[in-house]
Specification:
With 72 residues, the protein is an all-alpha fold. 64% of the residues lie in helices and 0% in strands. Helix 1 packs across helix 2.
Length: 72
């Protein structure tokens, strides 16, 4: 893959995804936390969120799948 410069649009889209997540973590951090502290904690939280997603997908596979269709 070639290393082309990112476009302003690509950076804008990425920042729209990143900053809401960062602010969620930042708001839960102690008041004397640094940005670096927050980024480290955010990395850990996002790893946990990924694990949770995988576990949830495993639970919703096959017969355990949650269906919105009502049975009559």
């Amino acid at each position: 893959m070639e290393n082309k410069a990112l476009t302003p649009e690509e950076v804008q889209k990425a920042s729209e995804q990143f900053f809401p997540l960062f602010e969620i973590v930042l708001n839960r951090m102690p008041s004397n936390s640094t940005v670096e502290d927050t980024l480290k904690v955010m990395e850990t939280i996002c790893s946990l969120a990924q694990k949770n997603r995988i576990e949830q997908e495993k639970l919703s596979f096959g017969f355990n799948k949650n269906n919105d269709v009502s049975r009559s």
